[in-house]
Structure formats: structure tokens, C-alpha cells
Amino acid sequence: MPGVEDWLNCPLDIVQRIFEQNKENWTQTACEYFTKRLQEKNTLSWIPSLNNTKLHNLKPNTLVKFRCMVQDMFDPEFYLGVYEVEDTKTGQTSLRTGRYRDIADCSPHQQIHFESSRNQTLDRQTLYCVPVPAETPWVKEAFSSDCRVRATPSTSYSAVRQKRSLDNDEQTNMEPENTEVTMETEGQTSENKRSKTDEDTGVTPPVTHDLNFPLAGETGPACLVKIYENFDNFRVNDVIEFVGILSVDPALATATQQPQESPFVDPSDGMEGVEERHVHCPPPSLVPRLHAIVVNKVQHGNPLLPQNLQSEENLAAIQGVLSEAASVRQDLIAMFQQALFGDSLAAEYLLLHLVSTVYARRDVMALGKFSLNLTGCPPNSSFSQELYRLIQELVTKAHLLPMTLENMNTLKFIPKKDYTANRLTSGILQLSEKTHLVIDETALQPGQLDANGVQNVTALGNVISWQKCDYDFNYHRSEFPTNIIVLTLSEGKSLLPSDSLVPIKPQSNHTSFSESFSVIHSSLTPVLVSKFRTYISVIQSLDYDLTEELQKAVEGDFVEMRKNDPQSMTAEDFHQLLIVSRWLSLTTGQKTLTKEVWERAKLMERERKQRIKSQSNRQ
Questions:
Q1: Which residues pair with 471 in a beta bridge?
Q2: How many CB atoms lie within 10 A of CB 269?
Q3: Most buried among 37, 159, 450, 560, using CB within 10 Å?
Q4: How many CB atoms are located within 10 Å of the residue 527 CB?
């Protein structure tokens, strides 16, 4: 069997070899071959990553990996999955596969028979993928340090082989020698894109390519990922690690040129428009192509943990975290208490918020969500930024949104379909699951929200209340489920809704918070911060069970509380109490509710409501 150098550096040769040896089930055999190689210990760390390696340092047609979010899904494209090649010297013919390729690669003495009855036209799906939005710096650094290979600048393409189209068959006989043409076509076969030679002069003016990142300031490449099976398993906003074959052939850039006027070219071939061509066929030096062979959906995004936390071999590691859960929990609460002016109750609610996630959906309800509004935050200060920096050190994905009038009126929160370019333009709320969104409402100044600002506030409210975002498709809105963990920091009660409102009750001086945060960061040793990061990710992933006995006891308790004071215990209050008790149980390392935890949750909720009442009386 081929050695490491073969399958890492020459994967297309291995794919062709497997195709020739087993033409019936060869695709499954090829996937199994690479999957088996990647399952070997530490093998994945030897594969270069697009996330932290400059594109010019990667060799074309080699295996690379890319950790990304699916930002958009383009229409399927057709390609020649199998095509016949003739050796013009000997007259012998052979079959080749076009899978995992953009360009058909032929020797000078070979030619493709586009009219051969042995050819097979297949389809594949193209995903527009971007680096994971809001991924925190420590996560990026950890993944980068785990990559053992350091790529060197790649050599340029050699021109010893001709590169021919695999789908523009009627054009083939009219092309001069040594031309490079793109392989795939998007949409209907009647709208195949025509290629041009380097001598063509009808090129479009230079265009600035928008990489369509949801958040400003994100770094890393966007990528067109080609997938070949299980199309229905992919959704917009999925976080996936692809391992596949890198394609950056310069010939792919010719698809952005305007079709030349020729009596041999169908005039309808240029109907997709200049903007759509630039979006769907950007220069590969800017947006490379990746032909996915192995696909791994990312469950939690924490580089300190194995991806599959539920597997048998990883149960021991999970149990180790749970055995220390009580002590780690106390350390976290003590740290948050120091950050929140000595308020232990607010610190405990902040911890519950950080480990919360949507675990199920019932009709319109997103169960498990626990958005938090901390009030009493000092305005006109750096408190919100300091607290965000601390949270950013603990979680895998976080973004700070200053709620200024300018931001609310000018930024785009909701993704919108651009029918001219035939793509989904991103918005701030196009975030993957378990992203922490910290909203700094202390930055809001008196003023008027315009129509866009009102729309943005409404969109934020929908995410907080229902965990959904209505994407704008011009003629209609399409509802996309979200799982965004929203923390609102405000001086008084926020304009935005929340699942839990907690007024901060200071036990120390507001003016000393900068010093407190400095002390906190200096005390975060690498061992301690790793424990915190591991703890939060593990707690979020745990299953929770409410035994029948406890369920009856809880229901009986609800009836008694309603009987004693109907106003203080509504159905919404009871649901909130169940959510608090769920995350309170899990943060202590218990996967089921106990009577002690239930009583503790009731006490916390009573104290929280009393604070709100006292604050209202003072006002």
C-alpha cells in the first residue's frame, strides 16, 4: 500500500488507482481508505490546515484540512465523474475519474473523448465556507500548535500537461492546444460556462471580492468546498472540519471572464451575470477549492477535548472532569464574584448562563436557553470590555457587540439573499451553535433608531426569546433556528428581553474593577484556565435526566407554591425554575436533579426576584 508521502502528497494518484482496481464500489473504497489512514494516532496533526497556513505555502492537489462554518450553499454542479481518454500514439483508450478534480489533466499525446458512451455525468454540491465566526484566540492558537507540519512555499504549476474541460464537450474540438479550461458548471446544463484562452482581451474590470464573513475583523481564507455525497446532511451555519484535496489551479480564475463573442458559442451561456460569476468563481488564489473526502461535524470546538465525548474510550476523561466538577465550580464562582463586585448570586447566575445551550425544541420553544441580563453595570467605563475579555478566555466562541446607535442603525444583523449575485450575504446573527454574544448596552446613548435599527433590535429579540432568526429572501422571510448564548450588560433593565434578569448587588467599590480584573488574569495559570475551559465544554455536552420520583415531587411543589402565592409562581416562573435547576445540577457534576439542588434553585430564584422588587421600590 502507498506510504504516508503518497496519500498526503499524491492523493489523486491513489484515487485513480483505486478507481482502476475497483470500478463498482470504488468511491466507498476510496473514502474508507482515507478515513482509515486518518484514524491512526496523531495522523490528522500531520495534515496542513487552511486555517493557519498561508495559501502560497500549500502544495496544490495535496491533502489539507479546513475547520469552518457553512455560510452559503450554491446550486449543484455537473461534472464528468468518469471520462474516456485516448492515447494518440497507440490508439489505446482508458477510463479516468473526475472526482475530486476541477481540471481534467491530460498528457500532450492524450485526448478526451467527450462523446464516449462510457462517460458518466455526475453532480456535486458546492458549499461556501468561512472560518468559524467569533472563534476565540486561545482556540485558534491551540489548533495551530497542534498542527505538526510546517508547510513550505509551493512550486508553480508545470505546463507539461494539458488541462481540459470535463463538461464543455461541444467546445473541445474548437480550442487551440495548451489552453486551460474550467471543469465544472453550476446550475442548468444549458448554461454551461465557456472558457477563454489567455489571449482573450474581453476581461471585466478589477473587482474587489467580498469574502462575506459574518463578523468584521475575521481572518483566514474563505473556501469553496465540493462535497460528493449525503448532500442533505449539510445545513447553513454547520461547523465542519473537512479533509480533502486542495485545488488552486489558475485556470479556475478564467470563469470570471466574460464570454467572448463567437459564432460557436451559445449566447445564453453568459446569462448568469458578471456579479454571479465573480461570487461563484472567485480567483482560487483568494478563495481556494477543497474537494472533501472526509467530513467531520464539529460537536464542541474545544481543542482540549476529543471530538466525540460520548464514545466509550472518552468516558473515563469525562468522568475525571465530573469528579472535580464541584471544586472547579467553586473556583469559577469565586472568580466571577471578584469580577462582579463581590456579588456571589450574580456570579452563580453567570456560570449557569455560560454552560447553557438549547438541548431540544418543542413546537416554538427552544428548551435549555438561558439568556442573562446583568444590570447595574457601570456606564462610561471599560467594565463590559473587561468582563468580555474574561469570558473570551473561557469559551470557544464569543463576540462583543457594543449597542451604540451607530452600530444598531448601520450594521447588518440579518443575512439577506442577493439574487443578482445569487448568494446569501451574511449578517452579524449568522453565528454557529453555542456562540456567546455579549451585548454592551451601557454604550447606548439617547437618540433615534432608524428603520434598520428597529429591525436589528427586533432580530436580537427574536434570537433571545425564540432562538430563531428570520433570514431575508426579499419576497419572504425564512426562519433559521439559532443557538446563540446572549448576555446583555446594562445599567438599568435592558431594552432587550432576557430569560433571567439579575441586578448586580455590589459588595466592593465600582471604581476598583480594573484592578480586580488584573488580579484575576494574573491568577489564571495555564493549568487552571485549562480546567475551566474543559469544564464548561463538558458540562454543556452532558445529558440530563429528571427521575419520575423527582418529577412528581417537583410538580407537587409547584402546586403548593401556586396555592400559597399564585402571583409569584406562574407557569413561566416554573419553567424558569426547571431550567435553573437543570444547569445547577449539571454544574455540580450531577446528571439528575436532587432535592438539595431543587431547594437551592428555589432559594436562588427567590433572592433574585427580591432584588428586582427592591430595586423597583427604590425607583
A1: 478
A2: 16
A3: 37
A4: 7
Distance CA 49, CA 328 (A): 33
d(CA 513, CA 377): 11
Q: How far apart are CA 184 and CA 193, in angstroms?
A: 8
DSSP string, 525-553: -HHHHHHHHHHHHHHHH---B--HHHHHH
The C-alpha cell that represents 146 in the structure block: 497542534
Crossing angle between the packed helical segments 325-339 and 526-541, to the nearest 10 degrees: 110
DSSP 447-461: ----HHHHHHHHHHH
In the block, residue with C-alpha cell 467531520? 296
Pairing of the two strands 416-418 and 398-402: unpaired
For the entire predicted model, the pTM comes to: 0.89
- Amino acid (one-letter) located at 583: W
Question: What's the number of CA atoms in the CB half-sphere (13 Å) around residue 430?
Answer: 29
Residue position matching grid coordinates 463578523: 215
- Among residues 269, 304, 263, the alpha carbon closest in space to that of 533 is found at 304
Q: How far apart are CA 470 and CA 143, in angstroms?
A: 33
- At residue 122, φ and ψ (nearest 5 deg) are -125, 175
Side chain identity at 429, as an amino acid letter? Answer: L
Q: Is the pLDDT of residue 217 over 90?
A: no
The span from the CA of 433 to the CA of 571, in Å, is 28
Please, where are the H alpha helices in 40-92? Answer: none
Give the closest residue to 183 by CA, choosing from 163, 165, 161: 165
DSSP string, 165-214: -SS-GGGGGGSPTT-B----EES-GGGPPPP--TT---PPPP-PPP---S
- Grid cell digits, residue 484: 446563540
Strand duo 468-472 + 435-440: pairing: unpaired
Helices (H) and strands (E) in the chain, counts: 16, 22
Contact 163, 251 (CB under 8 A): yes
Contact 85, 110 (CB under 8 A): yes
Amino acid at 516: S
pLDDT tens for each residue of 473-528: 998 999 999 999 999 999 999 999 999 999 999 987 766 788 899 999 999 999 99
C-alpha cell at 112: 478526451
Dist CA 505 CA 583 (whole Å): 22
pLDDT digits (tens, 9 = 90+) for 543-557: 999 888 888 989 999
